[in-house]
Amino acid sequence: MANDPIHQFQISKIVPIQIGGIDFSFTNASLFMVATVACAAGFLYFATSQRGLIPGRAQSVAEMSYEFIAGMLREGAGSSGMKFFPLVFSLFMFVLTANLLGMFPYFYTITSQIIVTFALALLVIGTVIVYGFYKHGLHFLQLFVPSGIPGLLIPLVVAIEVISFLSRPISLSVRLFANMLAGHITLKVFAGFVASLGTMGALGVGGAVLPLIMTVALTGLEFLVAFLQAYVFAVLTCMYLNDAIHPGGH
Amino acid sequence: MFVTSAYAQTAPAATDPHAAPAGEAHTETGAAHGGGVFPPFDATHFSSQLLWLVITFGLFYLLMKKVIVPRVGGILEHRHDRIAQDLDEAARLKAEADAAVETYEKELAAARSKGHKIAETAREAAKTKAAADRTAIEAELAGKLAAAETRIGEIKAKAFAEVGQIAEDTATAIVDQLIGAKASGDDIKAAVAAAKTEA
């Protein structure tokens, strides 16, 4: 397409860095990773700096997000899952802030990069595997053998369970990445229609109203998606962690 | 065609700030783009993406774990404790108030029965005293009445006794006045006695 909606995902180097022949440049994506961390951490830090017994608005938001994730984790992984609270909370806040920052025009959406979401998904699955074997040893493999299955079906069920387990990091990362990518491309395409129709005289300007309405509606939808995907990422993290904590409880 | 030119005008402007400090980077990006690789799948940037993700997310995780989570947890726990403490305090105060009300009512009942008793005793005492006073006064009055009756009787008897004398004196005086002569005492006495008997 002429009005390149892919351009917004282009990575450009700000400070080129080469270590041992590998490219570690500080790019616009890196800049927005730093911005995401600065926004999320800065907000949480200053919102709670008063430590008010009666919370202000900002402190309320910080407390609500804390209790939201705490409730989610307790429900999904039980009270013994609370040791993973910092991880789930960090993941949720990081993904949510990154998604919301991406809603600003000209801002870079780091969660639209498959490598970023895949790395976060691998972090979750890696935590599940490492903690599962550390805590339960080989009993962790019970995860793949649901109880109450007739002996004949066990190989089949185990194969299905292994495949479903291996597909988790892929589905977890692709879901977030694809949602953000598709949403931003759609927004860009409709916004591009507004711009190109607007240059085509009076009729074009009249016709540009429709994609403009669509763009406004899509922007609202994208804010919902930004929150929803962060929520889904956190919920699935809780569910997978539950497998590491209770591998037999299938 | 309009579309192409419009994009071509805006595109360099958007990339310019990033491209300006690193001239050689721009050419590399251009080459990668020119290769037709979809940017999110462009593996040339994976290493730098991963490194910076590890740095930023690692920092973020540490900050959450060491500062934010304990702090927010502390705030919530403190509030929870404070509410529980306040509720306990309220329950204690309520129990205290209930006990005070109970004591008050007990004391009120005791005072009321005591007052009742005192009133009863006082009424009883007053009644007895009044009765005693009445009997005493009645007795006194009866005594006085009896004395008065006796005296009246005496006076009456005395008067009756003196009636003859008076009648005689009067008769003597009357006769003296009427006829100018002294009647003999015996006649008069006899006349009076006759009149007395007639009466």
UniProtKB/TrEMBL annotation, chain A:
GO CC annotation terms, alphabetical: plasma membrane; proton-transporting ATP synthase complex
A Pfam family this protein belongs to? ATP-synt_A
Superkingdom as given in the UniProt entry: Bacteria
Q: Which GO MF term does the entry hold, naming one?
A: proton-transporting ATP synthase activity, rotational mechanism
Matching PROSITE patterns: ATPASE_A (PS00449)
Intracellular or extracellular location(s): Cell membrane; Membrane
Instruction: List the SUPFAM superfamilies.
Output: F1F0 ATP synthase subunit A (SSF81336)
Grouped into one coarse class, the protein's main location is membrane
Transmembrane regions: 29-47, 84-108, 114-134, 143-167, 187-214, 221-242
Give the way it sits in the membrane: Multi-pass membrane protein
**The keyword Transcription is annotated on this UniProt entry:** no
Q: Which UniProt keywords apply?
A: ATP synthesis, Cell membrane, CF(0), Hydrogen ion transport, Ion transport, Membrane, Transmembrane, Transmembrane helix, Transport
- Xref: InterPro entries: ATP_synth_F0_asu (IPR000568), ATP_synth_F0_asu_AS (IPR023011), ATP_synth_F0_asu_bact/mt (IPR045083), F0_ATP_A_sf (IPR035908)
Keyword Transport on entry? yes
Free-text function comment from the UniProt entry? Key component of the proton channel; it plays a direct role in the translocation of protons across the membrane.
> Which family, according to the similarity comment?
Belongs to the ATPase A chain family.
What this protein is called in its record is: ATP synthase subunit a
> Which species expresses this protein natively?
Neorhizobium galegae (Rhizobium galegae)
Per the record, the gene is atpB
TrEMBL record, chain B:
Per the record, the coiled-coil ranges are: 87-114
Gene Ontology cellular-component annotations: plasma membrane; proton-transporting ATP synthase complex
- GO MF terms held by the record: proton-transporting ATP synthase activity, rotational mechanism; proton-transporting ATPase activity, rotational mechanism
Keyword Transport included in the entry's annotation:
yes
Topology of this chain in the membrane: Single-pass membrane protein
* TM stretches of this protein: 46-64
User: Superkingdom of this entry's organism?
Assistant: Bacteria
**Self-association or partners: how does it assemble?**
F-type ATPases have 2 components, F(1) - the catalytic core - and F(0) - the membrane proton channel. F(1) has five subunits: alpha(3), beta(3), gamma(1), delta(1), epsilon(1). F(0) has three main subunits: a(1), b(2) and c(10-14). The alpha and beta chains form an alternating ring which encloses part of the gamma chain. F(1) is attached to F(0) by a central stalk formed by the gamma and epsilon chains, while a peripheral stalk is formed by the delta and b chains.
Name the protein family.
Belongs to the ATPase B chain family.
Q: Give the protein name, as stated in the record.
A: ATP synthase subunit b
